[in-house]
Amino acid sequence: MTSPAIELRDLYCKLGKFELGPINLTVPRGCVLALVGPNGAGKTTLLDLIMGLGRPKSGAIGVLGFAQPADEVAIKARVAYVNPDLNYALWGAVGRALDFVRGFYPDWNDGRCARLLEAFELKRTDKIAALSFGGRIKLSLIMALSREAEVLLLDEPTVGLDVNARRILFHEILEIVKNENRTVVISSHQLDDLERLADQCAILAKGQLVAMAPMDGLLDRYRQVDVMMTGRMPECIGVRLIARQGERVRLLVDRHAGGEGELEALGLRPVADVSMTLEDLFVALTSNPMEMAA
Amino acid sequence: MMNANVRRLVFDRSPRGLSWVVLFCWMISGILAAEFALGQGRANALMVYSAGAWAMLGVGKIPAWRTLPVSQKDLRQAQFWQFIGIPYLLTFSSAFIGVAVMAAAGFLRASWIEILGLMSVGTLVALTMGASPLLRTMLGNLLGPVGSLIATSIPMIGAIGLASFVLIGEVNRAVLLTVNWLGALSLILFHAALIFNQSLPLALPVSQIKTPQASSLVPHPPVRFIAGRPTARPSGFWTLFGWSFWRVAPYAAFTLGAYAIFGIATRYAPASSVLLAVYSLQLIPLFSLLASLSPTLIDFQRVRAGLPISVFKRTLAIHLVSPALLVPTWVVMIGVTALAHPAAISPKWWIDCGLSSLMASALTALAAPLQMRFGQKGFALFLATFSGLWSFMLARGGASTWNPTFAGLMTLALLAGWIWTYLELAYGRKAYQNRAPALARWRGAAS
To answer: Which residues of B touch A101 (CB under 8 A)?
Structure first.
């Protein structure tokens, strides 16, 4: 049986006041996973831990059947990682940074690297320090996409990219996942793009995994309805208050948790069924409804 | 000793230009060691600069190194060579070759204990400078900004102060032992930081998570927005100056604290004649401190360009910081000297301190526009040139170098730095030039 691309078991990490987990997550091979969450939710920390940059307090991390940290080198050889915090300016020119990195990867594809340089409009002679923020992200992406990496961990890869570069990136990702063994994990705040591209979605909030499902299934699981009610919203399982205007209340109903039954039990009849996007779901799951209910 | 991965990491000499500059500085450092062997031992600021610059070149590469398929053991080994091994070998070998050449030529005037002192200081400086960047990360995570300040200031000031003490020629067994113990301590701290830092993720999470507010069905109330050009308050300049001052003041406070500790410690040193020279040399870290202000103050010029404050006032806000920091420096120095060694306060001491302060101000004044024009590389070259000249000057005659010509040159440099800064802010890079705030008009939520 083929091992999953990424498997996290009771992963827990504490850094100062910040706590991540415990997280249990399985990412199958050949999928595009969208990792979304508000700032400070722990997306970057999670990707760092998967890559082996840092140590969790407890739990197990498995990547392509290898275990962190015992098989760290094998994992890093098969995983490509993009992070806006990585800065290659000390290597001077784009070409020099690429030459330095390619020496560590036997699966480096020079032809693809040249094609990506052209597509992203970068030259080997360009000075990295003089590149814009988007230009530096492009360089990181070229380093990641020029390899035959089996897993790509892309942390905020679209930040600073113009529309053309973003389209090229998504085209490349789609080309990658044509191969059923290659997996892409993208953390981003561009929810519209992710909704079109990803087939799995994981939502992180305050260091906890609040939802993880196939993208279509996730949007089908939740329903956004408006109901009329007076007084405070009672506590009920599977129903979450999103917003309120007078007696009109917008609720997020989790069908899997029996939210619809709870609504009926309370005698609340929806007056409107509001269509929902990933962005709506993200806001509903990660916002603090108590302040609105007060 | 080194496998292929470690060699590839350690011998990747990027950025190449600066690497060659630093290697050249080490070579000059060897010539200064030869001069030391002649019995004219003086502080070698170039040795400090070379070790510090080498460490700084390496620290920016570590995040990228960590993502490569290299084992933790190899990564630790590569960092050891980058921060400790190579600086130590280069410092030690340049000093050894310098002394050996003098000995072979029959010009060896220094005693064996002084030569041993020189080698030990080289070790200590290389170890302290190499350990400092990693310690800063470790203590910054454990103790917050205070930890970063401690790791930045105390070890460097201590090492440089002690190095000055040894290199002026006052070496005995106790000093030698202290230097070597501090070197061993630096090595232990370096390894602790190396292991601790590997347990940290690349980007640390924010300490406090703020969740966004839920979207309301009610449109947000219209925001009151006053259209038109904001007017500068009379206190705008003082706010800017105060902000700059307090931003760098903690570094100054730590430096001065280190001075005080060092000064009081030297009370138990043997000869007061030597202490005179020590007090002059104590200003070396002050120069480094003031020079380090420039990057701190220049970093925010792009933001300041958008403030409704004139170029002249922005220039003043940059350049008044160093004189403002010199005042408490004087107070501490006079206080410590008066308490520890009242006899050391002589007219010569006053002149030395005054001219040293002038030199520090001139250095900062020149470094600021230089960095605005040529960036970090220009600034690094400037520091290297200055460290070399300073070392040669001290080797040639120490405090007696101070003369009216030098004072005049420093005054001219100070004025040139101020004027150049004004010109850079007014007519230099677009990002530094004053930008008029964009006129905005609130059109309301509905329209």
So the answer is: 64, 68
List all residues 6 or more positions away from B286 whose beta carbon is below 8 Å from its beta carbon.
B255, B329, B356, B360
The closest CB to that of A292, out of B17, B205, B214, belongs to B214
Report which residue type is found at B413: A
Contacts by B112-116, CB closer than 8 A, 24 or more apart: B113/B171, B113/B172, B113/B173, B113/B176, B114/B36, B114/B41, B114/B169, B114/B171, B115/B37, B116/B171, B116/B176
ipTM of this complex prediction, to 2 decimal places = 0.84
Buried b (16+ CB within 10 A) or exposed e, A237-251: ebbbbbbbeeeebbb
CA B199 to chain CA mean position, Å: 28
Q: At what angle do helices B283-298 and B236-265 cross, to 10 degrees?
A: 150
Distance CA B147, CA B84 (A): 21
The closest alpha carbon to B127, from B90, B74, B75, belongs to: B90
* CB-closest option in A17, A76, A243 to B68: A76
CA-closest candidate to residue A224, choices A249, A247, A246, A199: A249
B405 reaches A (C-beta below 8 A): no
* Alpha carbons B395 and B323: distance in angstroms, whole number: 28
Cβ pair A161, A137 in contact under 8 A:
yes
- Write the CA distances from B392 to B94, B109, B126, B282, integer angstroms: 16, 19, 20, 17
- Using DSSP's 3-state secondary structure scheme, residue A225 falls into strand
B171 vs B213, more confident: B171
* Count of C-beta atoms within a 10 Å radius of residue B125: 28
| AA identity, residue B125 | V
Q: Quote the CA–CA distance of A136 and A59 in Å, as a whole number.
A: 34
DSSP A179: S
Retrieve residue A78's tokens: 């098969």
First to last CA, chain B: 72
Residue B426 has pLDDT above 50, yes or no: yes
Global pTM reads 0.75
Residue of A43, A91, A189, A251 to mutate, interface with B, max B Cβ within 10 Å? A91
Q: Is the pLDDT of residue A149 over 50?
A: yes
Question: Could you tell me whether strands A208-214 and A222-228 are parallel, antiparallel, or unpaired per DSSP bridges?
Answer: unpaired
DSSP β-bridge partners for residue A19: A14
Query: Which run of H or E residues covers position B362?
Result: helix B347-397
Question: Which pLDDT tens digit goes with each residue over A117-136?
Answer: 988 888 999 888 888 888 88
For chains A and B, count residue pairs whose Cβ atoms are closer than 8 Å. 139
Task: Quote the distance between the C-alpha of residue A178 and its chain's center.
Answer: 19
Which residues, in sequence order, are CB contacts of B27 under 8 Å at separation 6+?
B94
Query: CB–CB of B207 and A17 under 8 A?
Result: yes
**What is the torsional sign of CA A72, A77, A78, A84?**
positive
| Of residues A53, A69, A90, nearest to B201 (C-beta) | A53
Are A233 and A216 in contact by the 8 Å Cβ rule? The answer is no
Q: Is the Cβ–Cβ distance between A108 and A146 less than 8 Å? A: yes
Sheet containing strand A239-245, edge to edge, reads A239-245, A248-254, A222-228, A270-274
Q: A30 and A177 in contact (C-beta within 8 Å)?
A: yes
pLDDT in tens, A23-65: 898 998 888 898 988 888 888 889 999 998 888 888 899 998 8
Instruction: Encode pLDDT of B307-349 as tens digits.
Output: 777 888 888 888 888 788 777 777 777 777 777 667 767 777 7
Cα–Cα distance list, A47 to A28, A184, A209 (Å): 16, 12, 13
- Taking contacts as CB-CB distances below 8 angstroms, the residues of chain B near A248 are 217
